[in-house]
Amino acid sequence: MAKDDARGDGRWDARAMLELGTRHARLEAEGDLDLVMDTLVADPVYEFWPIGLRMRGRDRVRRYYEHLIGPFYAAQKSYRLIEEWLSEKSLAQEYEMVVEIDGQLETHHVIGILFARDGLLGGERIWGSKAILKQMVGPVWDELEPIED
């Protein structure tokens, strides 16, 4: 893959963003951690809103995905894509998730915005309740840092 685009043809546009974001989501759903990490820049940044916390760096992000793909997906009973928005810079998706938390099924809505940087994903901005974000982030939760302006 060329550094500046997802298609390898030298152009970066909304279609390239969609292809990169779709590939990332497919690999995540398939549980292919190494290939998920290959879709990310060297120093990815993940922001969690509205709580205003973030994580950065490959080590934390890898551990986040290990938990997300493993224990979190195991607790997720269903999910559905509600809406998707696309530009050349980002792919935003709203999901409804039914997750088992402390023995109870809970329905949560989450919005994730994947953003591009140098032909790869620079990270993601994720909106959700504190309860669902804490479940998604898992063991990396205590390492999150406040987002500074």
Number of strands: 7
Largest sheet: 7 strands, mixed
CATH topology: Nuclear Transport Factor 2, Chain: A
The helix count comes to 4
Distance between the termini: 33 Å
Number of domains: 1
CATH class: Alpha Beta
Rg, rounded, reads 15 Å
- The mean pLDDT is 92
Question: Which blocks of ≥5 consecutive residues have pLDDT under 50?
Answer: none
3D shape? globular
Order of helices and strands: HHEEHEEEEHE
Descriptive account of the structure:
The chain is α+β, with helices and mostly antiparallel strands and 149 residues long. It has one domain: Nuclear Transport Factor 2, Chain: A (Roll). Helices cover 33% and strands 41% of the residues. The protein is built from four helices and seven strands. The protein has a seven-stranded mixed β-sheet with strand order 3-4-5-6-1-2-7. The longest helix is centred in the middle third of the chain and has 18 residues. The radius of gyration is 15 Å and the shape is globular.
